[in-house]
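Technical note accompanying the year-one report. For the benefit of new consortium partners, we illustrate the data format agreed upon in the data management plan: each record pairs a sequence with a structure-token string. No post-processing was applied to the example shown here.
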Amino acid sequence: MSQQQRKLKREAKLTADRPKRRYITGFDGLRALGVIGVIMYHLRPELFQGGYLGVPIFMVVSGYLITDGLVMQYHRTGRIDFKTFFLKRIRRLYPGLIAVLFATSAYITLFNRHLLHHLHMMVLTNLTYVYNWWQIAHGQSYFARFANGESPFTHLWTLSIEGQYYLIWPVIVLGLLVFVKHRTKMASVVVALAVVSAAWMALLFALHPTADPSRLYYGTDTRAFSILLGAALAFVWPSAELSDHLPKAASWTLDGIGSVSLVGLLIMTFTLSAQSGALYLGGMFGFSLLATALVAVVAHPAGHFNRLLTNPFFAYLGSRSYGIYLYQFPVMIAFEHQFTDVADHPLLYPVVEVALILIIAELSYRFIEQPVAKFDYRQLRTWLAQLVDRRVADRTPRIVVAIAAVILAIGSVGLVQAPHATAVHESQLAKRLKQTKADKLAQKKRLAAAKASIAKAKSVAANAAAASKSKEAASAAAESAAQKHPVNQKYEKYGLTQVELQKAQQIGITGVGDSVMLDGQPWLQELMPHAYIEAKVARQMSASIGQMQNLANTGALAQVVLVGLGTNGPFSRQQFDAMMRVIGPTRQVFWINVRVPTRSWQNPVNAQLAAAAKRFRNLTIIDWYGYSNGHKDWFYPDQVHPNPKGAPHYAAYITKCIVAGVHS
């Protein structure tokens, strides 16, 4: 026997002696829970505030499985087969990705052309797995839902992070196995990297607590900790070496850890907002730790959680979770583009959308993902010959190829047209919501003026008699000026009397709102020149409480406060009460309810505001929804933001309500 033969025999014996990797069916259950959470978050965020946390579950599972497989391969063969690893990833991921990119591009080309702008770059960066960095570089917000039309690819940032992980991680694992060697030390190194990633996320948030957190949400550097925690677990918890039998006490301990982890994950899924400071200051890291603990319990054959998460329903969803995740957002965007009355059908429409997602994902799984993943490319010539041979009875491949060719052709047309679609994409609304340097400078001047005016008003208010006399004098002056020096007469046709217009000139208010208020700010500022309005695109309640507190702390919160929040998402009663506590019981609060018919949370938000008005004596709800409903011509195509025709109605109605409330 030659030396080479003896070497091969030893390697074969070593391979045979090593335990074989087992398929952990419970991971399909985890994937199913993850994808359910993400879809429900996108469909009903008012019910599933933290459903987006399904993504860290995917990442932890992926980090564990990939690292576990690489370590096992190295111990069995003494090397890592990079070629096979990358080819498997390409076969597994690219067919579905290409299908969703080109199918969506074809839909955009035919039916939703205002989304053409940057389409070619979105497709290219997704195919090269750098889309998340492209989103960051181009200021793409995960939370801005309306201004330029919502991208059907927004959710694909996570695939880019996973793709970057697949490219780099095998090399890092090999380096750890060769140079560090000891499993606990390797796990410690990876945990340290995870902690650095989480700390970096927290630091960036702390430096810019009121900024749009999309940079933190998309960044590979700020999201890597979920994958790294799963990877660290694989070094010390190898699936093939976990015993089938444990003492009963140890088995119950595993189940206890799994129960606590699962309950913690579910609580956070229902309560942790994507714009909450707690999320970025350790909340997401904590969630990932709980997910890692649950993955460890599910992976262990002596526990009961693997069986608990193993059932036909979870197996089905888990096996198709990749396709379901891919197609969910394009289906939702396409559906809601055609059916804009989502708020009126909070149950029916989500059911229809989920059904469409499942059907399309199943078709993709059967006719694209699985056939390509299992295809023997050595038989390509034979397959092509059979494809054009009419004597072959099975027409399915020909039909699939024909449909794919049409989709690719139409999608490609859209990609060619995309670079020239800039003017179409830069909507009038998007331009309105952009702040120039001049706008920012003017805002600083208004802030300084507001602080001075508020300080003066406080000194007057300190003397009750003087305050009463000042109010009476202002009212008399307004009536006199209405006759002698009329102002803003063009607004009289919007329902404001000249006396009301004069009174509005004297009212000092502080406004905090989202892009709807930002859209109407010029008209509000014209009607109430002493108003200081702090409005921002994509703003939600969770990020606004701190902003309101900052205004109060810096002397910029007037006695009259205008709030316009709820367009971009719902809020809890606790968040609302926290906002009212920050404003305080001595100030008058005017809260504009929402008109957002394309989102499921419109009616719940408005119902919550109406109920809150009964609990807070200093709260008045401005019924913009009731006033504007039935006037579609007042709005941009998103049916949310007032257009130049509707904006004067918006500002005049709000001003009239404030004047009536302040002077009542």
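Partners are asked to follow this layout when depositing records. Residues 82-111 form the longest helix (30 residues).
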